[in-house]
Amino acid sequence: MKPDVGIVMQGFFGTLLGDVAPHLSAEYSMGHVGIMGLMLHMTGELHDRAADVCLAENREMRALFGHAASLVEDEGLKAKLASAAAGEDASLRISVLGENNAALAALLIELQAHVEESNAPWAAGLEARIWDYLVATMERRELPFPSFG
Q: Are 15 and 36 in contact (CB under 8 A)?
C-alpha cells in the first residue's frame, strides 16, 4: 500500500468535521476539532505542492541572482550571487529543498538591503524585480481553504 498524503489528510478532515465534531457537546472542543480538520486539509494540499513550490522559488531566486551579479558592484556580494546562481537542487527531498530555499532567501534579504541602499541607476529596476518575486512567492504559498459547496 502506498498512502497518498493528500487523500489521507482529506479523509481525516472529513471525518473530524462530519463525524466527530457533530457529536461533541462543548463548543470549545468542536472549535478545536474544526481547526484540526482545517489544518489537516491545508497540510495535505501543501504537502502535495511543496516540492514544486520550493523548486520554482529556488530557480527564480537563482535567475534573479544571476541577473543581479551582473549589476552589483560590491565584489563580495557579487561573488555570493554568482555562486548561488550557479547552484542547483541536488535532491527533491522537501527537507533539502527547504534548506536550499532558506539559504537562498537569506541571500535575497542581503541583496534587497543592498539594493535599497544603492543609488545606482539599476537599483530601482532590480528592487522592482525582487518585489515581483516576493509577491509571486506569497501567492504561490497561499493557504488553501476547502470548498464546502
A: no
